[in-house]
Amino acid sequence: MDQFHDEEILGKAYDSRLMRRLIRYLRPYRRHAFLAIALNIAIAALGPLRPYLTKIAIDSGIAKRDGHTLLLTVLGIAGAMLFQAAAQFFNAYYTQWIGQRVILDMRMQVFEHIHRLSLRFFDRNPVGRLVTRVTNDIEALNDLFSSGIVMVFTDIFTIIWILTFMGIINLPLTLVTLSVVPFLFYATFLFRQKVRESYRQIRILIARINAFMQEHITGMPVVQLFTQEKKVFDSFEDVNAAHRDANISSVFYYAVFYPSVDLISAIAAGLIIWYGGGRALEGAITVGVLISFLQYTEMFFRPIRDLSDKYNIMQTAMASSERVFKLLDTPPAVVDGRNAIEVAKPRGRVEFRNVWFAYGDDEWVLKNVSFTIEPGESVALVGHTGAGKSSIVNLLERFYDIQRGEIFVDGTEIRSISQESLRKNIAVVMQDVFLFSGDIGFNISLGDGGIDESRIRRASEMVGVHEFIASLERGYTQPVGERGSSLSTGQKQLVSFARALAHNPSILILDEATSSVDTETELRIQCAIETLLQGRTSIVVAHRLSTIQHVDRIIVLHKGEIREMGTHQELLALNGIYRKLYDLQYKERRGKAAPPIGRDGLRDRRDGDS
Ligand SMILES: Nc1ncnc2c1ncn2[C@@H]1O[C@H](COP(=O)(O)OP(=O)(O)OP(=O)(O)O)[C@@H](O)[C@H]1O
Ligand SMILES: [Mg+2]
Q1: End-to-end alpha carbon distance in the chain
Q2: 402-451: per-residue pLDDT in tens?
Q3: What is d(CA 259, CA 254) in angstroms, rounded to the nearest whole number?
Q4: Under 8 Å between Cβ of 570 and 556
Q5: Ligand nearest 395 Cα, by number?
């Protein structure tokens, strides 16, 4: 499964290059970050202070029957505990405070960056993977910021403080306690190795489950139509079972590791009692020392145990950040030139000059394509499926850059026009209409502040969809469901026309506007198209020749090359590809008269309209 290759990479738990870059996100919150670190040092020091004070209480207070010292040390312990509790509260609060802010910043950055990337990128990267970047991967970084890094500090400081206090109190006893540490390291090492592998498996499998769900929910109609449920369940069960097993194996390692650490810690305690007890009998050390050491051993092993858990968090976070940064470092394939100009309102002259284009390196999709469309002229692109019609549309919008040749809008090469102003002036009604899950009004204006209600309404009236919208319970505020699921294909089509018209572009492109509607809707859409095309440079991509009755000129594409160009009558007279297409469709409509296609027919209609 090549798709999950990125998920499989598991690098180091600490990579200074990645870490430096991550730390940069803390910059806006550095005051809080320093505060959090200071609190951590305080917490780390206050804990180990307690056994030390306990020792004083026992040896100098109880053993010497000195009530005053006893009271003071008990008060000291209570004070330290109170202070520690307060510090823990602020620490927990501020680390999350910082973590959540960093996550917001990163998520915004990734989301914005994805919007800057060119279509070529999305051809190669499945949606599920990108969603994983913005959700899971960033979440892993949240763990790093809110618990990982900071707690690692606490753990390390705690260990240092404990060792310091132990050393001050009694050095030989400290060495005895530390004699078990090699075993601890070995256990930790084994644990990390095992758990690391099962974590990696879990992550790959989660990515797989996500992708599987995503694809099958999107393709639900196909699954149900072809009654593939059983097969789909089986495949899903396989992935899920693997996920369960990977989780169980990681749980197993935890279940072995934690008690092992406790066991080692108990051995350490035993050693202290055995060795320390013997020394105490000799009178070499006091009972207070013994008790404080028993407390320290308990304290000492917990941070070490936690550190190996943190190691996993760190490792996951490093791998996640690697992936997130890789995404952020992916440059957009299509970028504005340094001196990209803004075009305010082009007249709409379009020229393709010797354009060669391929999506990959393999095959030319367009070969030496040249044509000119004058301002206000409407041109149809026809040709077999895969001929390159939609590709021409993509290129004019500059979704992709061409390999050879030039494309001009109003005489300016489109690579020297800013993408924003280019696209603002070219509206496309796509082959498959996309509606967002807002209401109808939003789907027409797309939240563009310059498009008010009256303009939405006017556009809808012009394309003949206003009546339908008004008949809905909530009119323009009727929600359309995800991807416009509550509307029919024809209705969506008309709404997308209204959208194009409301944005009032200089150049309008309709890709396959009438592929799946009934005759009545088709007629309505025809009228709508005529409205749309008026006074605008337009390109209509069509399979059904009946939908392009009113265009000025027809370009016939065949396997990426322009083979014929001219009016309907001229092309029929040529007796070439167009003639063949036309005859085929005419035959399809057996019994019906061939539609009166042509320039003259168009002129009549237009004159009648105005
Ligand atoms: N994103 C893409 N990545 C790679 N190849 C593509 C991509 N889009 C289209 N192609 C290829 O480019 C060629 C032209 O496709 P295009 O979409 O322009 O055809 P079309 O004329 O619009 O066809 P249709 O009438 O079916 O819509 C096809 O061979 C197709 O396989
Ligand atoms: Mg197409």
Answers
A1: 60
A2: 999 999 999 899 999 999 889 888 988 887 788 888 889 999 999 888 88
A3: 9
A4: no
A5: 1
- List C-alpha distances in Å: 186 to 155, 261, 264: 19, 11, 11
Which residues in the chain come in under a pLDDT of 70?
1-13, 148-150, 513-518, 587-610
What is the CATH architecture assignment of 2-329? Up-down Bundle (1.20)
CA gap 602, 349 in Å, rounded: 21
Q: Residue ranges of the domains in the chain?
A: 2-329, 338-425+544-610
The CA radius of gyration of the chain, in Å to the nearest whole number, is: 36
Q: Is 387 in the pocket of ligand 1 (CB under 6 A)?
A: yes
Its CATH class, for the domain covering 338-425+544-610, is: alpha beta
Which of 118, 124, 356, 359 has most ligand 1 atoms within 8 Å of its beta carbon, as the pocket-test mutant?
Answer: 359
Angle at the Cα of 378 from the Cα atoms of 372 and 384, rounded to 5 degrees: 80
Give the separation between CA 285 and CA 275, rounded to whole angstroms: 11
Q: Which H or E element spans position 461? A: helix 453-463
DSSP secondary structure letters along 567-578 = -HHHHHHHTSHH
**Any residues with CB less than 8 A from the CB of 270 and at least 6 apart, and which?**
none
Cβ-contact 378, 540 below 8 angstroms: yes
At 9 the pLDDT is 59
- Tell if the pTM clears 0.90, that is, is over it: no
- Cα–Cα dist 396/539, whole Å: 11
Task: Note the pLDDT of residue 110.
Answer: 92
**Which H helix or E strand runs over 554?**
strand 553-558
The torsion angle over the Cα atoms of residues 111, 112, 118 and 123, rounded to 10 degrees, is 0
| Per-residue pLDDT, 6 | 61
- 189-237 residue pLDDT tens: 888 888 888 887 887 888 788 888 888 888 888 888 888 889 999 999 9
**Ligand that comes closest to the CA of residue 559:** 1
Which residue has the CA at smallest separation from atom 16 of ligand 1?
388
With 0-12 CB in 10 A as exposed, 13-18 as middle and 19+ as buried, what is 520? exposed
